[in-house]
Design a protein that fits this description.
Number of strands: 6
Largest sheet: 3 strands, mixed
Radius of gyration: 18 Å
Number of helices: 10
Order of helices and strands: EEHHEEEEHHHHHHHH
Strand content: 5-15%
Structural class: mainly alpha
Strand order of the largest sheet: 2-1-5
Distance between the termini: 60 Å
Length: 246
């Protein structure tokens, strides 16, 4: 019997939840990988395509297809009135996605760089910026307009973002290979109290990397939503933030 893979839509994942079990469809693995291989190679000839930046030796190797590894996916349908606007997750290997669940193609850099990006994108700091500029459907133009701070490999706060995002994303054995490349254990942040504390510390680290201060953080959490009170979260983030700046 041929292997069958889930087809993801936007509701198939949530923040730090790589698989909700709510799938768009399912697909035969051998058929879809053949199709995606041909599509990637064809699009690599288009200069504006991300695939155009991929080396020829990778393009001709079907084992390097993105669907065979863990990758960052994000919802294209997003509203500024929702609890969160930008919803992304590290989804497991052997998943394919509709356009409603676009993904980032890593054309250079290492898995740790990708993990750093996941940490930034998952923060309320990044989300707050995006809520200022978009309306209903998230476009790549919207994303391109948001800056990503990067002090470079070896910066202690950057390294901490990688560690936190890695631990939060590697929820089970489906991420074993990915977690090994990042250098984090699998399942180490599944306890809810540990998870929530790491999420708050992540926001603090990201705020520090953006060069924000305590007043800036107060504005972000006070204005993030008209219906949700983030006072407790702000207090938890500030506790971590003061440890970075004190």
């Amino acid at each position: 019997m041929n292997e069958v893979w889930p087809v993801y839509a936007g509701k198939s994942f949530n923040l730090w939840q790589p698989d909700t079990g709510n799938y768009y469809d399912s697909v035969d693995a051998s058929s879809i990988t053949a199709h995606l291989y041909e599509k990637r190679y064809r699009q690599s000839r288009v200069k504006s395509s991300a695939f155009a930046q991929i080396d020829e030796t990778i393009l001709t190797d079907s084992d390097t297809l993105a669907c065979l590894r863990a990758r960052i996916a994000f919802r294209r349908v997003a509203r500024t009135t929702d609890t969160r606007t930008f919803v992304c997750a590290l989804i497991p290997p052997r998943r394919v996605a509709t356009e409603a669940a676009s993904y980032f193609e890593r054309t250079r850099g290492e898995v740790r760089d990708e993990t750093y990006l996941l940490g930034i994108l998952s923060s309320m700091i990044f989300d707050w910026q995006l809520r200022r500029v978009m309306e209903l459907t998230l476009s790549f133009t919207d994303l391109m307009g948001i800056s990503i701070p990067d002090p470079g490999e070896g910066d202690p706060v950057r390294d901490r973002v990688v560690e936190i995002a890695g631990r939060l994303a590697a929820v089970d054995e489906r991420f074993t290979e990915w977690a090994a490349e990042v250098g984090v254990p699998v399942g180490s942040a599944n306890d809810e109290a540990v998870k929530q504390d790491l999420i708050c510390e992540l926001d603090a680290c990201v705020a520090h990397l953006y060069g924000l201060d305590e007043d800036d953080l107060a504005v972000i959490y006070d204005t993030f939503s008209e219906t949700v009170d983030y006072a407790d979260r702000l207090a938890a983030v500030l506790a971590h933030f003061r440890g970075l700046t004190g």
